[in-house]
Amino acid sequence: MTTSAPARASRALKIPTRLDRRYLPVLGTFVVLALMLILGGSRYENFLSPAVVSNLFINNAHLIVLAVGMTFVILTGGIDLSVGSVLALSTVVTATLLQAGLPPAVVIPLAVGAGTVIGLAHGVMVHYFQVQPFVATLAGMFFARGLCFVIAPESIAIDNASFVGLASWVQIFGGWRMSSGVLIALVVVGAGFLVLHFTRFGRTVYAIGGGEQSALLMGLPVARTKVLAYVVSGTCAGLGGLLFAMYSRSGYSLTGVAMELDAIAAVVIGGTLLTGGTGFVLGSVLGVLVLGLIQTIITFEGTLSSWWTKIVIGVLLLIFVVLQRALSLRKT
Amino acid sequence: MTKLLRHHLFWPVAALVVLLVANTVARPSFLAITVRDGHLFGAPIDILRTTAPLLLVALGMTLVIATRGIDLSVGAVVAVSGAVALSHLASSPNPDSPVTVLTAVGLALALCLVLGVWNGFLVSVLGIQPIIATLILMTAGRGVAMLITGGMITTVNSGPFKTLGSGFWLGLPVAAVIAFGVFAVVAFVVRRTALGMLLEATGINPAASRLSGVRSKTLTWTVYTASGLFAGLAGLLISADTMAADANNAGLFIELDAILAVVIGGTALSGGKFNLSGTLVGALVIATLERTVTVLGISPLVTPLFMALVVIVVTLLQSPRMRERLASATRRPTPPSEPQPAARPDSTEVKAR
Amino acid sequence: MTQQTAPAVVEMTGISVEFPPVRALDGVDFRLRPGEIHALMGENGAGKSTLIKALTGIHSPTAGTILVDGVERRFTGPADARAHGVSTVYQEVNLCENLTVAENIMLGAEPRLLGGLHWPAMRRQAASHLERMGLSIDPSSSLGSHSLAVQQLVAICRATVSDCKVLILDEPTSSLDTDEVAHLFTVMRALRDDGVAILFVSHFLDQIYEVSDRMTVLRNGALVGEYATADLPAAELVQHMIGRSMEVLEAAEEVVEHAERPAAATPLLQVVGLGRKGSVQPFDLDLYEGEVVGLAGLLGSGRTELARLLTGADRADVGQTRVSGQTTRLRTPRAAMGHGIAYTSEDRKGEGVVDGLTVRENIVLALQARRGWMRPLPRKQVDELVASYIQQLGIRPADPEALLRNLSGGNQQKVLLARWLATAPQLLVLDEPTRGIDVGAKAEIQKLVADLAAEGMSVVFISAELEEVLRISHRIAVMRDRRKVAEIDGGRATMDQVVDLIAGGGTA
Fold it and tell me: Which residues of C fall within a CB distance of 8 Å from B207?
C-alpha cells in the first residue's frame, strides 16, 4: 500500500519495523496453556478428553465472567477487590428471593442489578471522591459480605423448578458438554471483546489506562468511562453470582471468599498490566483456563496435594510479573 | 475547640469512645475489670488481647504505607509463621522444653524475615508495583503454609508456647504485653531516630529524597522486611492462642483489617506522613467494633457491614473533594498578611499535561 | 512573510493573567495571521505558556479580549478550543501510546458502523491524513512502537483532522534530532501554505530562524515587541529576551571581586570528557575553591544536564571525574555528597522540596540522610541550626514547624539552600536558584552566593538571566546545543560577547 505513496520526507525518518509487543504477554499465556495441555495429555490418560475440557469450562464459568469485568477495571488502571463478595451477595439474593416464591424472571435482574449498583457506588467513589480504587472496593467488599449475612447467614438451597431447569440445561454434542452457565459466560466474553474493541467506550477504557491526562486532552469522556468500568465489573460480579448459584444450586454467604484474588491472578496471568492500558479479555479467559488447568492437573496427579495449586499460581504470577517488568524496562 | 477538632487523632478517638459508650449502655458492666487468680479479667482486657496480632501487623503496614507501598502478604505470612512454629513443636519429642519453644519461635521469625526480604527485593530492586509484588506471596504463602503443615490443622500441647497466646504476665495478657511492647519500641525508635522523617521524605517525594542523599531503596527494603517480621510475630500470637496451625484460616483478611486500622488512624494510603498512634487507635477501634457487635447481640458475621460503613465514612471524610467542601464550609477567610501558599504559574501546569 | 496583510485569525489584546500575588501576564497583545509561522519567544517565566493557556482556555485572563476569526471567545478548555479550530500539540506527546496510530488520530471523530467503530474506514482515513503529512506508517501499529518524532507528527496529524485554523506547537522539537526536526519543518511549511496559522515555541534559536516568519518576544510577563524574523538579528533577539540594554548592564555593579587565584592550585573538582548520550556532549571543566563558575546558555542548551553529571544526579557514560586530584566516580547524589558536593535541582517542586514535611525537617534532611537514620541529630542542635538558617536567610514565616507547602517559592528556595548549606559542602551547584522568586529574595541569594565563595566554597551557578550570571561569576562556561562551547573570564566578559556565544555567532 505505502510503497508507491509519495513519501516526501520519510526517508529521513527512522521508521521501525513493526513488532507489536501488545500480543507478547497473551502469547506467553497461550504457550503456557498449550504446554500444560501437552504435559497433561502425555502424562494422564483421558486428560485431553472432551469431558475434561468441558468440565474446565463448566467449573470456571463464573470465574470467566468475573475476570472479564475485572479486565475492564484493571485496564483503566484500577482494581476491584469486591467481586468475590458481590458474587456471594448475588447468590444469596437469588436463593432468598426464589425461596420467597418470586419467579426467576424477577429474581435474575435483581441479583445482577445488585452488582451493578455496588459497581456504580465504586465508580462514584473512585472518580468523584478520588478515593483510591483499592480502598473504595475494599469497602464494597466488606459491605457486600456483611449484607450477605444480614440477608441469610445460612446456606439456602434452590429448588425453584424453572431456575433449576435453566441451570441444568446442557447441550451435548459428541462428548462435549455445554451448560447454560458456559453459554452465558461465552456470551459475556464475546460482549466484552466487542465492547472493548469496537466502541468508543472500550477504546476510552484503554486510553485512560494509557494516560488519564492524555485521554482528557484528547477530549474523550473520561469521567463517564471510568465510572462505567466499575459498573461493568460490578454487573459481571452479579452475573457471576447468578452462574455460581446455578452451578451450586444454592446461595451461601461464604461463597467466593478470596475469589477476587483468583480473578486478579487470572487477569494478570492473561497478560493484562496492573498499571492499566494493556491487555485483552481473551487473555483473561486464557488466564482463567490456566488456573483451572493447574487444578485439573493436580487432581489428575492424585499424589500431589491441593496446596500446590496456590504455590504454582504464585510462581506463575511471579514469572509473568517479572517478564512484564523486563518488557517495560526494555521499552524505555 | 477547632484545634481539638483538627487534631489527627480526634475522629479515630471519637469513634473509639462512641463504641465504648455504646457497649457500656448495652451492658453497664462492660468496662469493669476484675482480678481473678492474680490476673486481670474483663472486656477491656480482652479487647487488648485480641488487638495484639492486628496491632503488630498494622504496625508494619503503617511503615510500608509511609513509603507509598502496601503489603498484601501479611495474612499469608501469619499462616506461615504459625505453621512453622507448631510443626516444629509437633515434630519435637519434648514440646514443653523452653529450648524447643525458642527454636520454634526463632525458626518461624527467621522464615518470615526472609519472606519480608523477598517482598522488599521485588519492590525496591526489581521495581515491581507493591500491590502486585506482595500479591504473589499473598497467593503462594498459604500454599507454603499448607505445605509445611501437610494440609492438616496441626495441634500441639506446649505449655510455654501457649503462654504466648493466652498466658498472663504481671496480671496482663502476655500477647498484649508483647504486641504493645514491640509497638512502643518501634514507635520510640521511629520517632527518636531519624527513621520516621526519612521514611516520610521517601514517601512524599522520592526524587527529592534521592537527591538529598536518602537511601530510599534500602529504607523501602527495610520496611517490607520489618512488615514480614511483625506479621510473623503476630502469627505466633495467633497460633499460640488456638494452639492450632490452620493454614487456610489463620490471619485470613488480617491484611485488610490492618490497612483499615492504618486508614482509620489517619495515615493516607498515598504515603508520606504517618502516625503510629493513629494506627494504635485504629486497631483498637476495629477490635472494639468486633466486640461491640457481639455485645449488642448482633451476629458477628455482620461485622463486615459495620467495617464497610466505617471505611466509607472515614475515606469520604479524608477524600480531597470532601475536605475542600468541609474547609470552605468551616474556615473563615484568613487575613492576607500571612504568607499564602505559593501560587505560581507552574502550579497549574499539571492540568495541561 | 506571506500574507502580511491578511486579517488576524487570533487577536489577543491587553491580556493579563494573575496568580496573586504574581502577575504572570501584564497587558500583552498578540496577533496571529493565517498562513504564517509565528514564533513566541522568551525565557523561562516570560509568560509564553501562560499566554498559550490563556488562549486555549486553561487559564482565564483577568483582563483583555481574545478574538478568534473576529468573534470574541473565552474557551472553556482545550477541547472547546479545538472545537473552534484552535489545536495544541505539547512538548510531551499527549496521546495514548498503548492505542494504535489510527485511533490516536481519529478517536473523537471516528467513523462508525452499526453503532460501533468502523475499523477499516478508520484506518483508511488515518492513512490518508498521514500521507498528507508525508508519513507512510502503518495506522494499525501501536503509537508506542514509534519514535518520539513520529509520535509528535501523529499528534500534529490529529490536530489537523478537525477543521484546524490555528495550530499551537509548544516546544515540539525539544527531544528530536536534526533529521526529525527537518521533517517536522517540512510538515509545518506545508500546513502554513494551506493557510493554517502556526504558533511555534522553541528554545533553539537556529530553528526559529529557519522556520518562522514573524516573532513575538515576551519578557517577565510583558510584551517586548513583534518583529519580522528577517529584520531581527539573533544577538538583538537574545537581548530582547534577556532584557536590559547594554548601558544599564555595564553600569551594574559587580558583586564579585575578581581576585586572582593561585596558578598552581589543584582543582577541587576536575572533569575530563564527561558526557552522557542524548543529554550532553563530553566536556571538560575545572572548579576551584572560592570561585563562582556561571553556566550561561538558553533553556535546553545542556546547562542543567551538565550540572546533573557533575553531582551524580545522572550517571555519566563517558569521562573522568577527579575530586581534589583523586579519580572517583559519582554514581549517585549520595556518593557526590560524600565528596562534599551539593546540588539543588531547577525543578524545585519535583526534585527539591518535600512539601509535606516541615521547614525544620526539610532543612536537616540532607545532613540527616548523610549521617544515616540511626544517628539522629540531637534535637537541640537541630533547633539551633534551623533557627540560625531561618535568621541568616530570612526565611518567612520564621516558624520551623510550618509545612513547606505553605511557603512562597522564594522561601522554599531558601529552605533548599539551607538544606545544602547545613551539610557544609565544598562545592555547591545551584540550578536556577532564583527562578520564579521576587526581586528582593533574588538579591539576597546572589549576595549569599558571593559571600559563600568569599569564604572559600566553590559554586556553580546556573541561571536563565544572563545579567545575573555575569554579575556574580568569576568564570563563565557557555552552553549551546547540548555542548560547552566556550569558557570565558567573568571579570572581563561583556554582555555582547556572551550573547554572541549563546546565539552561535561568536567564536569558541
Answer: 350-351
Query: Could A12 and C96 be called an inter-chain contact, meaning their C-beta atoms sit closer than 8 Å?
Result: no
How much is the pLDDT for B346? 35
Q: Which of C64, C158, C68 is nearest to C109 (CA)?
A: C158
Residue B96 structural domain: 35-319
CATH number, domain with residue A279? 1.10.3470
Interface contact flag, A147 B129, Cβ < 8 Å: no
Report the top-level CATH class of C10-248: alpha beta
Instruction: Flag whether pLDDT at C2 surpasses 50.
Output: no
Is the minimum CB–CB distance between C368 and chain B shorter than 8 Å? yes
> What is residue C340's predicted lDDT score, i.e. its pLDDT?
92
CA end-to-end distance (rounded Å), chain C: 33
Chain A: give the shortest CA distance to residue B147, in Å: 7
Establish if B135 touches chain A: CB-CB under 8 angstroms: yes
Tell me the nearest-neighbour CA distance from A5 into chain C, angstroms.
Answer: 8
A328 inside 8 A of chain B by CB: no
Does A222 reach chain C within 8 Å, measured CB to CB? no
Mean pLDDT of C375-400: 89
Query: Smallest CA–CA separation between C124 and chain A, in Å?
Result: 11
Identity (one letter) of the amino acid at B332?
Answer: R
Disruptive mutation site among C44, C363, C373, C413 for chain B (greatest number of B CBs within 10 Å): C373
ipTM of the complex: 0.79
Cis previous bond, A50, omega within 30: no
Helix (H) or strand (E) holding A326: helix A307-331
Select the residue of B132, B302, B353 nearest A213 (Cβ to Cβ).
B353
Q: How confident is the prediction for chain A on average, in pLDDT?
A: 87
Q: What CATH fold (topology level) applies to the domain C266-340+427-508?
A: Rossmann fold (3.40.50)
**Rounded-to-5 percentages of helix, strand, coil across chain B:** 70, 5, 25
With CB atoms and an 8 Å threshold, state whether B211 touches C345: yes
Question: Taking a C-beta distance cutoff of 8 angstroms, is the pair C311, C336 a contact?
Answer: yes
Looking at residue C401, the DSSP 8-state letter turns out to be T
| Chain B residues closer than 8 Å to C374 by CB | 193-195
| Mutation site for A-interface testing, chosen from B70, B128, B249, B305 by largest number of A Cβ within 10 Å | B305
Say if B7 falls within a structural domain: no
Read off the DSSP letter of residue B38. Answer: T
pLDDT value, residue B341: 37
Q: How far is CA B319 from the centre of its chain?
A: 22
- Please check whether residue B339 lies inside any domain of the structure: no
Look at strands B154-155 and B244-245 and give their pairing.
Answer: antiparallel
| Selected residue with higher pLDDT from C232 and A62 | A62
Give the predicted TM-score (pTM) of the model. 0.81
C-alpha grid cell, residue A14: 527512522
Q: Is residue A249 in a domain?
A: yes
* A146 in B contact zone (CB under 8 Å): yes
C398: chain B residues, CB-CB within 8 Å: none
pLDDT-above-70 percentage for chain C: 91
CA distance C26 to chain B (A): 13
Tell me the sheet residues that pair with A172.
A177
Domain ranges of chain C: 10-248, 266-340+427-508, 349-424
Q: Is the peptide bond before B130 cis (omega within 30 degrees of 0)?
A: no
For the stretch A273-299, pLDDT in tens is 888 888 999 999 999 999 999 988 888
* Residue of B212, B340, B344 with shortest CB distance to C369: B212
Residue-by-residue DSSP string for B65-115: HHTT---TTHHHHHHHHHHHHHHHHHHSS-TTSHHHHHHHHHHHHHHHHHH
pLDDT tens, residue by residue, B221-253: 999 999 999 999 999 999 998 888 888 888 888
Identify the CATH number of the domain in which residue B258 sits: 1.10.3470
Q: Is residue B115 part of a domain?
A: yes
